[in-house]
Design brief:
This protein has a five-stranded mixed sheet. By secondary structure, the chain is of the alpha+beta class. Helix 5 links the parallel strand 1 and strand 2. Helix 1 packs antiparallel against helix 2 and helix 4 packs parallel to helix 5. The chain contains seven helices and five strands, in the order ααααβαββααββ.
Length: about 240
C-alpha cells in the first residue's frame, strides 16, 4: 500500500512539473509574439498618427485634438502591452538572471503604491538553473501581488540568500496578516490558490515553503530550494548587486 501511494505521489509530481513547464513555455511564447508583432504594430500606428497630426495642421477644426487623443490612447496601449509582456515573462530573467529581474519587478510594482522596499542579497550569488530562477521569481511575484491586493502594508522586505547547496527566499510585510488556519481550511471554498501554488512550486523542486502570519501581525514567507553540487552556481555574470 505504501509503495502504491509513493508511486501515485511521484506520478502526480511529474505531471504537475510538466504542467508548470508547459505553462512557462507558453508564457514565453506569448510574450515573444506580443513583443515581436503586436508591439511593433502599435508602434507603427503611433508613428502614422504623429505624421497625420503634422500634416493635418490647422486645416480642419478639431482634427488635431482627435489625433492627439488617438496618440495618447496608443501610448497607453503600448505601456499596458509592455506591462503584460514583462508580467508574462520578464526578458531580464532570461538575459541577466534572477537578481536584476527581481529588483526590476519589486521596484516597478511597489514604488507606485508607496510601499517601502528593502531588498537584500546574501551569500555568493550567481546564475541558477532556469527552473529554480523561475520558481523564485514566480513565488515572489505571487507574494507581492497578494501584499498589494490584501495586506495594506507600508513596508516589504525581500531577502535572497545563496548558500553552497541551497537558496533561501524571504518575503516579509508589515500588513494586516490573516488567520492561516481558517484561510487554508479544506472546507473554505475561497482558499487562496496562490499560496497553494507557491507551496507546490517549492515542493516540485524538492524544497519547502512556509507561511507565518496572524491577524494584525503581517506575513512572512520563507522558501528553501536545494541546489545540487552538479548544478551549482554559474559565477557572478549578469548580477547588479
Amino acid at each position: 500500500m505504501t509503495s502504491l501511494f509513493f508511486l501515485y505521489a511521484t506520478l502526480v509530481r511529474l505531471l504537475l512539473n510538466k504542467i508548470i513547464t508547459a505553462q512557462e513555455s507558453e508564457r514565453q511564447r506569448i510574450a515573444r509574439e506580443l513583443h515581436d508583432e503586436t508591439s511593433q504594430s502599435l508602434s507603427a500606428l503611433l508613428v502614422g498618427l504623429k505624421t497625420a497630426a503634422t500634416m493635418a495642421g490647422q486645416k480642419e477644426e478639431g482634427v488635431e485634438n482627435i489625433l492627439e487623443e488617438l496618440k495618447e490612447g496608443v501610448n497607453q496601449a503600448l505601456k499596458e502591452l509592455h506591462r503584460i509582456i514583462y508580467d508574462l515573462r520578464p526578458s531580464l530573467l532570461d538575459d541577466l538572471g534572477l537578481i536584476p529581474a527581481l529588483r526590476w519587478y519589486l521596484e516597478t510594482k511597489l514604488k507606485p503604491t508607496g510601499i517601502c522596499l528593502n531588498f537584500n542579497i546574501g551569500g555568493n550569488p550567481g546564475r541558477l538553473p532556469a527552473e529554480i530562477e523561475i520558481a523564485i521569481f514566480r513565488i515572489t511575484q505571487e507574494a507581492v501581488t497578494n501584499i498589494i491586493k490584501y495586506a495594506s502594508a507600508r513596508q516589504v522586505a525581500v531577502e535572497l540568500h545563496f548558500f553552497q547547496d541551497e537558496i533561501k527566499l524571504q518575503v516579509k510585510d508589515d500588513g494586516c496578516g490573516f488567520d492561516m488556519e481558517a484561510v487554508m481550511n479544506p472546507r473554505n471554498a475561497r482558499r487562496p490558490l496562490g499560496i497553494l501554488g507557491m507551496k507546490e512550486r517549492a515542493r516540485l523542486l524538492g524544497g519547502d515553503l512556509e507561511v507565518r502570519t496572524a491577524a494584525g501581525q503581517g506575513t512572512e514567507i520563507n522558501v528553501t530550494l536545494p541546489v545540487s553540487k552538479e548544478e551549482g552556481y554559474n559565477g557572478h555574470q549578469g548580477f547588479d548587486c
